[in-house]
């Protein structure tokens, strides 16, 4: 297995070991993000360039009804390593991430929210911390983390959700829902093939599948800034997330008991119409 020691070269932290550099694929799911996707792309692109990574940014737009596709396409016209992917129907966060894997060329996949709540330098720190693990997830609640402007209601809901996840699945992570995550591409593909849900509880589904397969996931503290106008609404989405948790629990139980019906999963084989701009 690759040893991912770190060395300082020309002021940049890069991987040492058997391979001097990995290729990074950053996936950004975006749904009606015209107000901030342009700035988010600029910040993450600049950060990845500054670290000297070989990288691509894949923006998955599912069912957008605003100018998000136009803004992303305009940015991609000037940057060959930015790949816009359009879906006519809304896939959900998990659906968008798994669909983006069709376009991924890197051996490391980073995931970030379109609002840039995780600053680029924090996501880059997760990337270089992957080492020989299968994944690294950012956490807003472990020792050393910093949260900016997190509403009290959001904090209470997050802690309650985490407690429920711990009870249902035995996961020991303090924060499954932070958008900043990094995985080996092969691990992510394998996990996506067996996930059940595609909404906001997808993060739980993904982590359960990796952990059940014996994967090693590290949880690291990050600096995180709450950005308003999130696509997640506590009033609108809490019931849906609860239903998804139940679906994940039933599926997970069947898999662990090896029931014959355990192979049933969310079907992505006919995943709506797609348009990708690659290789201009």
Describe this structure in words.
With 280 residues, the chain is α/β, with parallel strands linked by helices. It has a single domain, classed as Spore Coat Polysaccharide Biosynthesis Protein SpsA, Chain A (Alpha-Beta Complex), CATH 3.90.550. The protein is built from eight helices and twelve strands. The protein has helices at residues 37-50, 68-77, 92-100, 120-128, 152-169, 185-192, 202-212, 234-257; strands spanning 6-9, 12-15, 23-30, 54-62, 82-87, 108-111, 135-139, 146-148, 181-184, 217-221, 223-225, 274-276. Strands 10-7-9-6-3-4-5-12 form an eight-stranded mixed sheet, sandwiched between helices. Strands 1-2 form a two-stranded antiparallel ribbon. Strand 1 and strand 2 (12-15) form a beta hairpin. Helix 6 (185-192) packs across helix 7 (202-212) and helix 7 (202-212) runs parallel beside helix 8 (234-257). The chain is globular. It starts with 5 loop residues before the first strand and ends with a strand. The relative contact order is 0.16.
